[in-house]
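In the previous lecture we treated proteins in isolation. Real proteins rarely work alone, and many bind small molecules. This record shows how such a complex is specified: first the sequence, then the SMILES for thiamine diphosphate.
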Amino acid sequence: MSENCSCSFHDYYSDNIYTWCTNCGNYGIHAAVKRALVAECCEPKDTLLCFDIGCNGNGSDKIGGYRYHGLHGRVIPVAVGAAIANRRVKVLAFGGDGGTLGEGINHLIHAVRGNYNMTFILHNNLNYGLTQGQASPTTKLEMKMNSSPDGVSSTPLHPARMILSLNPTFVARTFSGDINHMTEVIRRGVRHQGFSFIEIYQNCPTYNKATPHQWYQDRIYDVSTLPDYNARDLNRAREVAEDLENKIAVGVLYENPDEPEFLKRVANRQNATTELVDEVKPGSIESILNRFNQ
Ligand SMILES: Cc1ncc(C[n+]2csc(CCOP(=O)(O)OP(=O)(O)O)c2C)c(N)n1
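The predicted 3D structure, ligand included, written as tokens:
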């Protein structure tokens, strides 16, 4: 990130037409992401935005800058690779609850363990949106979905509980109906040195009628309004994160700025004066090919 930059909202403008449903939470999320990037002076030339497959990923060509649109559930390893290769680039990745907690859940777990220096934003709309309302790992028990007309029978995953059990360094939650709140939470995630996990409760007006905008609006509160809330207290974060039905905590639940990010833990990178991407050299693969040509 360059200092004294002149980054503006227009730098992230794309004139491609949005294809999301009317009132989809993704509109607000996109606005907040752009606002956060501009406020943190993340110029498009120094920023990589990585998108998973799904409704969330269909935003990949509706925003300017460097972007990657990957395979379903596989956005995290690509983003991790980019973050490790070049620390001059700020890396953000986006995924839905289906791809991230279904197909790609292993990647999420290991990214938290690795504490790679990037931000991951989970668009949690409680269903597989793009393929039209199948149950995802966060769909509530007994909810009737297109793929489970008699109601979901598997226990839903609790994303924050899972992440907080992995000794993460940054965990936050926010809500797609509050652009100011999302912007501030994303800004904090972007500033964090290490893996920042941000879960956004995203309303899905087409396939999730059970928890619409108003449902969240009536239940969420920011943890900063709790007396003496200390975001460095992991056990307290685990406590407040639990309730997903009545009073739902949002904001920065947990942050540990003291734990070094991945490359600061790797012994052979300690004296490096270059980034890994600077060290890539052309090489010959002739001897390898010869082994197969015999
Ligand atoms: C490995 C794989 N499994 C399934 C699909 C089909 N598929 C494409 S988008 C999608 C739904 C995405 O749901 P989610 O990840 O929750 O994102 P959302 O659309 O809700 O934003 C599915 C199942 C795929 N493309 N690749």
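Summary for your notes: The mean pLDDT is 96. The pocket of thiamine diphosphate is lined by residues 53-56, 72-73, 96-99, 103, 123, 125, 128-131, 136 (CB under 6 Å).
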